[in-house]
């Protein structure tokens, strides 16, 4: 019997998010935390991409001419603003249901986004290449982090950059991101995150470095209850983002 091809997809995670698909664009629904989280990650992405490619971040279409992949795109909460900023966007998700929701919302918004129900390894096998890859809140849900990072890195053009956002595997994260957010505040459905699948920054950066990428930026993201908003921080104990670049010669 032939050996099964390694896969990055965790079927249980796909089913969990598929069941919630209709909630993606409800700012007061099950994905309310992501809607609140979006401004800080959008500004980080826009500013870093603009700086890297020599664009004006305050321009009308600062991402024009850039091809961007949002892997694990869900209902398209990042794809749509990227398209509005001028990028050519491919949104990929293992859940057919999520992709159908994303396609419908993009059509209603008059946006041309290439949505695909597929996985990272399939895109890499097809030879897809991108200037920017958004790998946001995904690595803690995949079956094989190293394989996933490897396939994503394979799709980066030389000189391209990849953003990774995830949750640290610390007791602080257990208390705030899982127990606090899921069981006390009920910001997220119970079971959204599993502690043993969370990824420490050094583990993530090691996986990125093994593929030849260079770490360019790292930042924590914390919630301010007084202003009811997320903001960048030096504290990477819970939520954090990493920016990595593929050297031009690779």
Automatic annotation (TrEMBL):
Protein residues bound to S-adenosyl-L-methionine: 41, 72, 93, 136
GO terms for MF: 2-polyprenyl-6-hydroxyphenol methylase activity; 3-demethylubiquinol 3-O-methyltransferase activity; polyprenyldihydroxybenzoate methyltransferase activity
Reaction(s) catalysed by this chain's protein: a 3-demethylubiquinol + S-adenosyl-L-methionine = a ubiquinol + S-adenosyl-L-homocysteine + H(+); a 3-(all-trans-polyprenyl)benzene-1,2-diol + S-adenosyl-L-methionine = a 2-methoxy-6-(all-trans-polyprenyl)phenol + S-adenosyl-L-homocysteine + H(+)
Pathway: Cofactor biosynthesis; ubiquinone biosynthesis
Record-linked Pfam families: Methyltransf_23
Sorted UniProt keywords: Methyltransferase, S-adenosyl-L-methionine, Transferase, Ubiquinone biosynthesis
Record CDD domains: AdoMet_MTases
InterPro entries in the record: SAM-dependent_MTases_sf, UbiG_MeTrfase
GO biological process: methylation
EC number: 2.1.1.222, 2.1.1.64
Gene3D superfamilies linked: Vaccinia Virus protein VP39
Keyword flag Transferase: yes
Keyword Phosphoprotein part of the UniProt annotation: no
Top EC category: transferase
Function: O-methyltransferase that catalyzes the 2 O-methylation steps in the ubiquinone biosynthetic pathway.
Stated family: Belongs to the methyltransferase superfamily. UbiG/COQ3 family.
Name the record gives this protein: Ubiquinone biosynthesis O-methyltransferase
Source species of the chain: Nitratireductor basaltis
Source species taxonomy: Bacteria, Pseudomonadati, Pseudomonadota, Alphaproteobacteria, Hyphomicrobiales
């Amino acid at each position: 019997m032939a050996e099964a091809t390694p896969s990055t997809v965790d079927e249980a995670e796909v089913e969990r998010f598929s069941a919630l698909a209709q909630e993606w664009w409800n700012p007061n629904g099950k994905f309310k935390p992501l809607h609140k989280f979006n401004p800080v990650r959008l500004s980080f992405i826009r500013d870093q991409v603009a700086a890297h490619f020599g664009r004006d971040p305050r321009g009308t279409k600062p991402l024009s001419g850039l091809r961007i992949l949002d892997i694990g795109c869900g209902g398209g909460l990042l794809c749509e603003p990227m398209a509005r900023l001028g990028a050519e966007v491919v949104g990929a998700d293992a859940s057919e249901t999520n992709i159908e929701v994303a396609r419908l919302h993009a059509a209603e918004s008059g946006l041309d986004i290439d949505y695909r129900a597929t996985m990272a390894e399939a895109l890499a096998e097809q030879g897809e290449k991108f200037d920017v890859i958004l790998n946001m809140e995904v690595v803690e849900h995949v079956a094989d982090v190293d394989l996933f990072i490897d396939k994503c890195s394979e799709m980066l053009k030389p000189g391209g950059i990849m953003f990774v956002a995830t949750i640290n595997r610390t007791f602080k994260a257990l208390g705030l991101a899982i127990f606090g957010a899921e069981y006390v505040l009920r910001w997220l459905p119970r079971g959204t995150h599993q502690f043993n699948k969370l990824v420490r920054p050094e583990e993530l950066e090691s996986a990125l470095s093994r593929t030849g990428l260079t770490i360019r930026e790292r930042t924590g993201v914390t919630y301010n209850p007084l202003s009811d908003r997320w903001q960048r921080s030096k504290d990477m104990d819970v939520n954090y983002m990493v920016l990595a670049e593929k050297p031009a010669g690779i």
